[in-house]
Write a structure and sequence with these properties.
It is a single chain. Helices cover 2% and strands 53% of the residues. It has a single domain, classed as AttH-like fold (Beta Barrel). It has one helix and 25 strands. The strands form three sheets. Strands 1, 2, 3, 4, 5, 6, 7, 8, 9, 10, 11 and 12 form a twelve-stranded antiparallel sheet that branches. Strands 13, 14, 15, 18, 19, 20, 21, 22, 23, 24 and 25 form an eleven-stranded antiparallel sheet that branches. By secondary structure, the chain is mainly β. The two termini are 37 Å apart. Strand 16 and strand 17 form a beta hairpin. 49% of the residues are buried.
Length: 373
Amino acid sequence: MSFNKHDISRDACQLFGGQSKKGYDWWWHSFTGYNAQTGEPRAFFIEFFLCNPALAEDGPVFGQVPGKPGKPSYLMVKAGSWGEDAAQLHRFFGWKEVNMDWGSPFSISAGDCYLDETSTRGKVRVQGSARHPEWMCSDGEMSWNLSIFKDIPFNVGFGAGKLFRKMQLFQMFWHAEGMKTMYEGEVYWNGTRYLVRPGDCYGYADKNWGKDFTSPWVWLSSNNLTSEITGKKLNNSVFDIGGGCPKIGPVALKRKLLSAFWYEGKAFEFNFSKFWTFVRTGFECRETPLQVIWHVEQESTSGRMVTDITCRKKDMLLVNYEAPDGRKRHNRLWNGGNGEGTITLYDNKGRLVDRIHATNIGCEYGEYDILSR
């Protein structure tokens, strides 16, 4: 089965059973908009993050309240932008304020924030964040109204299929219903209007859920791709790499990645869960004083892919999440939307398919603090 297979049942909320009292579920969206006056591009992200509905109280429950550690329970609407004045903004709702369609297609609404498969709108305005470390964010304001069209998915296969979801085997699941997604609408970032257009938003949409996060945490994806050999824009192409150290219960599968490249209609997949494709993966992620750097090499029966990406730290965020048990283990999780680099793609006979220049790369790397493991 090709990974290019839509399955919106995986986008349904997964916080049932044990995950309802020790679990999270989030829907992530990232894209580029353009200043309505100057045309200057700017990369944005929006995320609806649900945590521990079975522990609901009258209002949102925070895990990072100084001197009062506890298990969090809320809907967090995360919004923000990358660039030299990057910021993440968090708005929290108690579960009594949340209206949720748990089926497929899903929908989430709370106050004036809304998300489903084909649209999202909302507003996050934060003031006084320095006095509230439990908010895990900074000050600012962002509002948006967008339509969503998820074009090309990355369906990872049976690892996030119905049986594994029901058994809740993995600590962290992943499904990218729109590793290439078109958005249309507008965003207001601190009072400035940005236009979002389907043809050049370079959008992405996925979701993660589970009981804990992975460490190391790796993510790379882009659909703004150009052949370095021919100079041709690759309009029917996208790649996506994610993972790090997946766990089945307490058993860690060290240094594993799930990866896919849809290259002008042809599928190249490097998915460790499909053992019959003999996947081999090696990767290195590191920081310099000014950059975060990723190098990934993968082989399978579909071919070989070598990925080299960099992103400037001044364009990135140290993005914040707390785990469902209330601990904040990731305190240096770099997250960006302006990565740049090269992917070299070979077929299964070792012949060069293309060398591709990628920009507008969504990128992430982080490892748990030693004391937080």
